[in-house]
Design a protein that fits this description.
Layout (H helix, E strand, L loop, with lengths): L1 E10 L2 E7 L4 E5 L6 H13 L18 E10 L2 E10 L3 E5 L2 E2 L3 H4 L5 E4 L5 H4 L2 H15 L1 H21 L4 H44 L6 E6 L6 H14 L1 H7 L10 E6 L2 E2 H4 L2 H23 L4 E5 L7 H9 L6 E5 L3 H4 L5 E6 L2 E3 L1
Parallel strand pairs: 3-13, 3-14, 8-12, 12-13
Antiparallel strand pairs: 1-2, 1-4, 4-5, 5-6, 6-7, 9-10, 10-11, 14-15
């Protein structure tokens, strides 16, 4: 699975540029604030339909322009695929092989990618919402049923929360069971999928962490919360928890039970990484989780995703740079840095120099 060509028009600081990538390591090199990360972001956007850096798509449009256009020519085991996006102030249009995609969920997963940057330390350092976002983006790339269930769950959750803000308490208690039945059904899909995904992720992450630290530390991942059994059993247990939380939910004005409150347990040598890990340990743990994601995509789809490493090498010591590069074998890698010769150590690569939102040829 590789990206061959990327076309950008009025995206971030790019007026109009075309990038051509090779199968191995592709290095976007240049000074800071020239557009390297913007190019990496565009690739991830075309893979997932989402940006890891912003919440509103209009921020992706170049200043002074009406819309941004992105397209990518890709190759996977099933043949060539063209992905496209037209982003305007209040809407966007996604296309697959030139045909408009009606649902964003159908755009997901046609080109898979794993993105890592210094900002991804949030997975370990920040609150549970960052870890849920990691799970949601990762699982959605390999499971359209998960992506659909997540979309429906969030819509029903919003409606239930709006109901909880009503002043008529009797109306709330009469109506809650209707929403709970639907909420529990989709929640069960999310909980089971996350449990299975973490079951796959944990050993790969532990292996990657042991590799990066020369066996000096042990990384453990697990789901916080206890929902064993199949989807029907999960839904049944969740319905009981929702009912038991009625008074609390009405008092607080929002739903306090469900997968929107889930978290991942991250332990380094038995200690909670969120409170005790150093900056270096946090970086290694987050990178290990991303390398594990890479292995899961290989396992589930039968081919490697695109690996995007944005300004990662400058944050690693020499030993871990070399170890990370050793893990990129057989994977198309898009790597951004300021000095390619300082991070590649003689490895062959396709080098693309960027300055002021333009490719320097």
């Amino acid at each position: 699975m590789i990206i061959k060509k990327l076309n950008l028009q009025n995206f971030r600081n790019y007026e109009r540029e075309t990038f051509e990538f090779g199968e191995g390591i592709n290095v976007l090199v240049g000074k800071n604030a020239q557009g390297k990360t913007n190019c990496a972001e565009a690739i991830f956007y075309l893979c997932t339909g989402a940006s890891l850096r912003i919440r509103h798509d209009r921020q992706l449009i170049r200043r002074g322009a009406d819309c941004a256009l992105l397209s990518a020519e890709t190759e996977c085991r099933y043949g060539k695929i063209t992905l496209g996006a037209e982003i305007r102030e209040n809407k966007r249009e996604l296309t697959l092989n030139g045909v408009k995609v009606a649902r964003a969920v159908d755009f997901l997963g046609n080109m898979k990618s794993v993105f890592f940057s210094p900002g991804e330390l949030r997975i370990v350092q920040d609150g549970p919402d960052e870890r849920r976002r990691f799970l949601n983006l990762s699982i959605s790339q390999t499971s359209k049923s998960y992506a659909s269930a997540l979309l429906r769950y969030n819509k029903i959750l919003d409606q239930r929360n709006n109901l909880l803000k009503e002043r008529d308490v009797s109306l709330i208690f009469d109506t809650l069971p209707v929403w709970d039945e639907q909420l529990a059904r989709y929640a069960a899909v999310l909980i089971r999928s996350r449990r299975e995904y973490l079951g796959r992720l944990a050993p790969y992450a532990a292996d990657a962490h042991a590799f990066l630290t020369d066996g000096g530390e042990k990384l453990e991942l697990g789901a916080e919360g206890n929902y064993p059994g199949d989807e029907e059993e999960i839904a049944e247990k969740l319905l009981k928890e929702l009912k038991n939380a009625y008074e609390r939910d009405v008092r607080l004005g929002f739903t306090t039970v469900g997968p929107h409150r889930d978290d991942i347990r991250i332990l380094i040598d038995g200690n909670d990484a969120r409170g005790f890990a150093s900056q270096g340990q946090t970086r290694t743990a987050a990178l290990s989780m991303k390398l594990a994601e890479l292995e899961i995509f290989k396992q589930l789809s039968g081919e490697a995703p695109v690996l995007i490493l944005d300004d990662v090498m400058s944050e690693l010591d020499l030993t871990r740079r070399k170890k990370l590069l050793a893990r990129t074998g057989g994977v198309q890698c898009i790597l951004t840095c300021t000095h390619a010769e300082r991070v590649l150590y003689g490895k062959e690569c396709n080098k693309i120099r960027i300055s002021g939102g333009k490719i320097v040829r």
